[in-house]
Amino acid sequence: MISQSLHDLWFGFGVAFEGHNLMWSFFGVLIGNLIGVLPGMGAMSAISMLLPLTYAMHPVPAILMLAGIFYGSQYGGAIGAILLNLPSHPPHAVTCLDGYPMTRAGKGGTALGITMISSFFAASFGILVMVFASPLLVAISFKFGPTELFSIMLLGLLAGSTMSRGSPLKGIAMTLFGLLCGAVGTDVNSGSLRFSFGVTELGDGLELVAISMGLFGVADFLININRMTIVTSNAKLSFRDMRPSMAELKIAFWPMVRGTLVGTLFGAMPGTGPTITTFIAYALEQKISKTPEKFGTGMIAGVAAPEASSHSKTQVDFIPTMSLGIPGDAVMALILGALLIQGIQPGPQLITEHPDLFWGLIASFWIGNVILIILNVPMIGVWVKMLQVPYKYLLPSALFFIAMGVYSTQNSLFGIWEVLAFGVIGALLLVLEFPVAPILLGFVLGPMVEENFRRALLLSRGDMTVFVTRPISATFIGFCVLLLVGVSLSAFLASRRGRLAKAMALPDPSLGMPANMKLSED
Fold it and tell me: Transmembrane region positions (predicted)?
C-alpha cells in the first residue's frame, strides 16, 4: 500500500509540474495570499469571483487554481488577523485573540514567523495523511452520521463557550447569542421565516463575512477611533526580530503538534468546517496550560495551535469533499461545485477514474506551500511596515476593503449595513468586557447543530437515548460532561480562592478589643 501510494504521488508530481498546471497553481496561491491579506476579503469571495473562469479551463488546472486560492488565503488571513485584528477568513478569528496582542507588544514579526512555521508543518503533515491514510479516513468518515456530528459540534460549542477570558457565563451567553443569530432566516425543514421581522433580505440569514468583519474589524476600529498611530509603530522591524528564537520555537512546538492532530482529526469528518477546528485547538491549549489566564494577552501557543489546526484541516478537508462529495464548509462547497461544473462526480471512484486530478492536486499542495514560503519570507517586512500606517489613513482604507469584500459576496448593500450593526454591537460588548469570539462559533455551528439534531431524532423516531447508545456519539457526550464538570469545579475553586483572599485582605473588625470580648462575641 505504501509503495503504491509513493508511486501515485510521483505520478502526481509529474502532473503538477506540467507548465500550465504549475502556472495556474502559482496564480492561485498568489491571488489567495493577496486576497487573504486584504481586510474583508477571503477565499470565498475570490473563488466566487473566479469560478466563471473555470468554465473554459481543463479540470486539473482549474481545481489546482481554486485549491491554491483556498490554502493561500489561509496564509494571508493570518497576516491580517495578527497585524490588524482583521480576520478575513472566519477561522482566523481565534488567531486575533493572541496574535494581535503580540503585535501590540512589538512581537508581530515573531507571531508571523510562528504562523508560517506552524502552517507549513501542519500542511505537510496533512498532505502525508492524504497520501497514506486516505482510504482509512474515508472508511472512518462513513461512521459519522447526524448523531455523531451533533455530539462533536456540541463539544465544540461547549469548548468555545468556556475558552474565553473572564466569566464562563459570559462566554456561554455570547455563544447563545451566536446560536440565535444563526437561527435567523428560512427554516430548512418547514420553509418558514424565523426572526426576520419582515425584512426580506434576512430570508437567507445573516452573512458570516459581515458578522466576522463587524465583530473583529469594525468593532476594534470603533474602540480605537481616537488613536492616530498603531501602538507598536516604534517596534524593531529588523529581520532578526521577525525570526522566532529557539526558546519561542520550543514553546510553540507541542501546541503546533497538538493543533495539527486536532485539524487532521476534524478534516476527516464531513460537515465540520475549519472554524470549529481552530476554536477547539485554542480551547485545548488553554485547558492544559499552566497559565490559562494569560491566554488573550499574547501567548505563542494561542497562535501556533489554531494556525496549525487550520492548515492541517484545510489539506485533509479535501478527503471527504473529493471522496464522498461532502464539503466541510462554504469554500469547499464552491470547489465541489467547480468539480460538478467540469463534469466530475466526487465519490469513492474519483481516485481511479481521475488519478491525474486527485494525485496532481495532492502534489500541488506541497508545491503551493513552498511557493507561499518563498513569497512570504521576504514580504514579512512589508506586512510589519503596515504597523506604521497612521490610523487616519488605515481606518478608511480598511473600511473600504471591508465594504467591498462584503458587498462582493452577495452583491447587496444590505451586507454593509450588517457589518455596521455588528461593529457597533461588538464595540459595546468589548466595552462591557464580553468575549465576542464565541458569537462567531455559535453562529457557524448553530444551523449545523440544529439540522443534525433534528435529523438524528427523525431517524431514531424521537428517541433521545440515541445520543448515548451509539459509541462514537456517547464518547463525545462524555467529553461534554467532563468539560462541564471541569469548568464548574474550576469556577467553584476560583470563587473560593477569591473569597479567601478577600477575607484575608479585610481588616479584622475585632482588632483592639479585649480577648474575652472576642470570645464572648464568637
Answer: 21-42, 62-84, 111-133, 139-159, 171-188, 208-230, 251-269, 324-345, 357-384, 390-407, 419-445, 472-494
